[in-house]
Structure formats: structure tokens, C-alpha cells
Amino acid sequence: MVYRIAPSILSADFARLGEEVRAVLSAGADLIHFDVMDNHYVPNLSIGPLVCEALKPHVKVPIDVHLMVKPVDRIVPDFARAGASIISFHPEASDHVDRTIALIREHGCRAGLVLNPATPLACLDFTLENLDLVLVMSVNPGFGGQKFIAGTLDKLRAVRERIDRSGRDVWLEIDGGVKTENIAQIARAGADTFVAGSAIFGAADYAATIENMRQELARSAA
Question: Which residues carry out catalysis?
């Protein structure tokens, strides 16, 4: 299995954002993860398409945009034009989930669906065949630095089983409380893409932290 590490810039030093992004790219990041919050769907406000557009020329890896906004359709084209590679959204934020998936793909991006800790898997019943990514939240969305919810491991296993049955190349991403100490356990539950914010940007050495994560992932696969 191919593993991907996606530092979340929500935990970066925003006064030095460009420098921070270059630093994690040099440290070996596979994706750059954007947590977009609107102070409506979630009780926080973060960044918008202008930040994505400003960073895009400096980012040679995929930009992974997680929209925690409601309604969602209005802002999808803006992020696509700003340089997003992947756009994920919460089914609770769309009146017509299938239409939103189609909108993302029509704008040239890969489409992802985000499952909150209490979101049932039934929302994948008629959407998985059109998805490129499923993002499982291991914390409740809205704030960085939260503790990993252990029950998420069972949800990961269930989603991994669905993906494997589908026979499609759908990434299974995890976001919330991911760190070196638990990344192997999360990988064994089925995740292949790991969003890490404070675990990376809160470390003194980004490269050493990402390398330690990779070593743990290699051990989990042995």
C-alpha cells in the first residue's frame, strides 16, 4: 500500500505561511492539506481560495482541500480555479451530495466525501463509485490539536472493506489527532493518507517527524 502524509497548514505559523509550506515540502510531505472553515458549518474561521491561489505556484504536490463550509457548492469553483487538486466536503453541508461530487469533478478536481465521527456509512451507498477519496474524521471538525477518537478505528476498517469490495482506487484519509505514536495503528485499520497538523508543525524538526511517521508506517506494513 502507498502511504501519504499530508501536513495541515491549519497548524502552521500563519505569519510565515509560505516559508512553513516550503519547509514541510522539503521535509517530504506528499500533500498539502487545507482545512477550510466558515464559522457556520463549524465554529471557527480559517482560510479561503486566495490563500490557496497564493501558495499554488510554490507547491508541486497535490493540494488537498477539506471544505468545512455550508453551503458548499458556491465555493467549489473558486478553490478549483485557485489550484486545488482534491476537494472534499461533508454530506451534511450539501442538499444534493451527488450533484456536489459531480460539480467538483466537472471543475477538474478529484472528489472526496468527509465522514464526521457520528456520520453513518450509509452516505457511501450510492456515492462511493464516484469518489476518489473518503476522509474519516477522528475528531469533531472545527479545531486543530484535538485528541484522536479511538472508535474511529472501527469506522476505518468498515470503510476500507467497502473500498476493497468496490475494486476502485479510492484513497482512505484520516484527519484528527494523528501523530507518530498512533499512526501505525491507524494504518493497520486501513488508512493510507494521514493528515497531521500539530504533530508536524508543533515539532522542532519537520523532516525528522515525517521520517519517524514513515518508519512507523513501514513497521505497520511488515
Answer: 35, 175
